[in-house]
Amino acid sequence: MAAYILRRILLMIPTLLGIMLISFVIVQFAPGGPVERVLAQLQGQNTGAMSRVTGGGGDLGGSAAASRGGGGESQSRYRGAQGLDPAFIQRLEQQYGFDKPAPERFLKMLWDYVRFDFGKSYFRDVSVLQLIGEKLPVSITLGLWMTLLSYAISIPLGIRKAVRDGSAFDVWTSAVVIVGYAIPGFLFAILLIVLFAGGSFFQVFPLRGLTSEGWSQFSTWHKVTDYLWHITLPITAMALGAFATATLLTKNSFLDEIRRQYVLTARMKGLSERQVLYGHVFRNAMLIVVAGFPGAFIGAFFSGALLIETIFSLDGLGLLSFESIVNRDYPVVFANLYIFSLVGLVVNLISDLTYSWIDPRIDFETRAA
């Protein structure tokens, strides 16, 4: 097993390198960039998500005003650079590191990322790691609670559906599961707001943030209830699709095991259905479900939360990544990509190891050989 783990870790290096290289090349051909956005801002053309970023380019306005009246061939590649001194544009390129060739910038980025040095955001005067750290509580909350809630519902429901396969209970719950899977999470979130957050009917739950104002002054019990009160709607909206997927996965896994020969043998020995189900079937059937828990958590943690964060005004990693892409804040974009990719690769390895831990009969090292 140690040799298998070592091989997987070594394979992470070219995988990460390929992900970062492809993304870097795409960015080189993408229109716009941080220099272009600052120039547009200085020319009064700033629109979109850029207006939400604070601290960006504030000290550049005076420099640009003092540099007006110039012109030149070096400005021709930047739209909105008319009337700005080429020396100012050159200083702007140096500030963002675009005065160096693309290969040199890519190699420097890799060297910095190996040391987990992600630099500072272009448009927020703060380090990238600090910025990501500020958003982590929201993403952890959404990912963890959504995964726990979906598993807590889907595993018992999936087992029940497998045991009563073909019954009326199985049919109507399947209809509910399919409808739940078909409804996008953001659409369900809007429905919840309309019904329970003052949209048109009831004002039961808050619409913004994870806690109320003055939360730090609350008693312990009040803190817990206030926190749960705030996360009820976004977690419910996010768990809908995941709950449906996990339910069908659990049901199908149990059905496969129930039809095996060892289950028939256990019944012939006189064991009760409960003993057969939880003493023999459960461990084998739950293999694929439990082993997929790390991946399900990371998937909820890093993806699928953008629209939910936007709708409920939750400032998490999903919203940060989106705004960074729109604003061409490349240090934040590439840092998120690097961290997400690295964590995803590690979680895939953990999932494989979880399979082996749950069922020692699975030996990935033997298969690899």
UniProtKB/TrEMBL annotation:
Origin: domain of life: Bacteria
ABC transmembrane type-1 domain location: 136-351
Location(s), subcellular: Cell inner membrane; Cell membrane
Pfam families: BPD_transp_1
Record's keyword annotation contains ATP-binding: no
Keyword Ribonucleoprotein among UniProt keywords: no
Protein family (similarity comment): Belongs to the binding-protein-dependent transport system permease family.
Protein name: Microcin C ABC transporter permease YejB
